[in-house]
Design brief:
The chain has one helix at about 15-25. It is mainly α and about 50 residues long.
Length: about 50
């Protein structure tokens, strides 16, 4: 596959420690070459499901 994103994962963590553990699990498979993370602290816009 080529391009910026091959998968998009959304997760919630109770705290920073749990977030780090979850990210380590995402990065651990040998098929994962690299990761990029973005953290959303709050939603500014609520979107309705279509």
């Amino acid at each position: 596959m080529t391009g910026q994103a091959d998968a998009l994962v959304t997760l919630r963590a109770a705290d920073t420690r749990h977030l780090e553990l979850a990210l380590e699990k995402v990065r651990s498979p040998s098929q994962v070459d690299s990761t990029r993370s973005a953290i959303v602290l709050s939603r500014l816009i609520e979107r309705r499901a279509q």
